Amino acid sequence: MAKKALISGITGQDGSFLAEFLLGKGYEVHGIVRRASTFNTDRLDSIYADPHEQNASLYLHYGDVTDGSGLRHAIEKVQPDEIYNLAAQSHVRVSFDQPEYTADVVATGTLRLLEAVRDYVANSGRQMRFYQAGSSEMFGAAKPPQSETTAFYPRSPYAASKVAAHWYAVNYREAYRLFICNGILFNHESERRGETFVTRKITRALGRIKLGLQDKLFLGNLDSKRDWGYAGDYVEAMWMMLQAPEPGDYVVATGEAHSVREFLDVAAACCKLNWKDFVESDPRYFRPTEVDYLLGDSSKITSKVGWKPKIGFQRLVHMMMEHDLELARQEQTLAKAGHRVVLRGASHG
Ligand code: NDP
Ligand code: GDR
Questions:
Q1: Residue 9 forms part of a structural domain
Q2: What is the extent of the structural domain holding 85?
Q3: Is there an atom of ligand 2 within 6 Å of 345 CB?
Q4: What is the pLDDT of residues 200-237, one digit of tens each?
Q5: Domain for residue 292, yes or no?
Q6: Buried (b) or exposed (e) across 77-93, using 16+ Cβ within 10 A?
Q7: Is the pLDDT of residue 170 over 90?
Q8: CB of 90 closer than 6 A to ligand 2?
Q9: Cβ pair 229, 254 in contact under 8 A
Q10: Rounded distance between C-alpha atoms, residue 19 and residue 25, angstroms
Q11: Among the atoms of ligand 1, which is closest to the Cα of residue 87?
């Protein structure tokens, strides 16, 4: 019998990589998808098969982590062996504008799912493994390098909500002996990254500027440093920690940090551009409290579980840049054919 996984947040960057990864391992994959007035499953297009087809192994269910009864129904219907809780309002800047909503989704959403799991396990007698998507943002202002023993110092409603979710998960593990792992993942990016996060905002804009579709790029703080890895590597870490004999909490990072300015340097060099010619500062993109320096020490997951990152900073930026230059070429073709190209992301994030 194939193992079954249930993923909340399957339509996001990580959800799509994880679904692909688990399908490759022979899992039957189920995802919780929010109802929207337009399709929000673009990132799953390459792996989606009509569920009526005989060999389909990806199934989508409507649901929302703000709706506890829906989560319970999904768990009872799917009876998963593993749950990956990736659903989140995941934008740090936006969490200052929507703090209550962010807490409801990120913190209480996790609690709702844990409660549903607790009851399901107690009533069915079945075991289940649970992954909680924690974040390096939980370390916030703590001095780098940050590891599992570093005290949290969250600097945004998003980060404070992730800290609450982290401790709910620890408490449910200890109180009800559930197999729960907190992954404390540092920033991870890809060509599927949302276009309002700084890396993708940069590579999308540079591609368009190179091809004459856009003039300026407005950004906030260029001095903050992040430990940027590749999303494809990081979903493997999520799975690996759930296969370990005992549950635990793990930092997942590359151990190398770069500033936003350095990201711009490398991306602009790929396109033979000088970013200082077109990058401008916009106060909208600064945060009331910034996280200056995140650098992860992932030696625990390497020694206990055997995970290591494969893709480094330079290769990551090149991959994203090449992808977004190709997207810009497609947009240019459309523009030349008289279509209106909407530069989504250019003035967001
Ligand atoms: P994304 O923002 O790309 O995806 C978030 C997912 O959550 C989307 O599928 C989104 O649905 C879904 N979602 C949002 N609100 C709800 C809700 N109320 N109910 C159900 N689903 C909801 O994030 P990533 O893929 O980058 O990140 C995955 C998880 O990992 C998140 O929890 C994030 O906070 C965390 N994380 C991410 C890091 C990173 O660098 N990427 C680092 C550390 C942690 P929709 O598509 O409809 O919007
Ligand atoms: P982050 O990612 O806040 O680390 O959270 P983001 O890419 O949004 O910001 C990284 C750094 O870049 C600075 N910055 C800008 N950021 C955005 N989005 N837009 C801008 O125009 C801009 N200019 C400068 C930011 O101030 C910040 O210092 C991401 C999310 O995926 C979280 O969900 C996840 O938990 C953490 O990574 C780890």
A1: yes
A2: 4-191+228-252
A3: no
A4: 999 999 999 999 999 999 999 999 999 999 999 999 99
A5: no
A6: ebebbbbbbbbbbbbbb
A7: yes
A8: yes
A9: yes
A10: 10
A11: 7
What the block records as the tokens of 271 is 């396109």
Q: Are 142 and 87 in contact (CB under 8 A)?
A: no
Phi first, then psi: give them for residue 58, nearest 5 degrees.
-120, 125
Does this model's pTM top 0.85?
Answer: yes
> Is 246 marked active-site?
no
The one-letter code for the residue type at 209 is I
Catalytic residue among 27, 120, 131, 158: 158
For 72, list phi and psi in degrees, rounded to 5: -60, -45
State residue 103 phi and psi, 5-degree precision.
Answer: -65, -40
The CATH number of whichever domain residue 120 belongs to comes to 3.40.50.720
For the record, the structure tokens of 192 come out as 């599927």
The residues pairing with 251 across neighbouring beta strands, listed in sequence order, are 184
Q: What are the strands of the beta sheet with 58-62, ordered from one edge?
A: 58-62, 28-33, 4-8, 82-85, 129-135, 179-185, 249-252
Could you identify the residue written with the tokens 């994030």?
349
Domains of the chain: total: 1
Tell me whether residue 71 is in a domain.
Answer: yes
Q: Which atom of ligand 1 is nearest to the CA of 34?
A: 47
**Active site annotation includes 28:** no
What single DSSP character describes residue 276?
A: G
Is the per-residue pLDDT at 313 higher than 90?
yes
- The pLDDT of residue 250 is 98
- C-beta 96 within 6 A of ligand 2: no
Q: Is 146 exposed, middle or buried (0-12, 13-18, 19+ CB in 10 A)?
A: buried
DSSP state at residue 136: G
Structural domain contains residue 300:
no
DSSP-assigned beta bridge partners for residue 250: 183
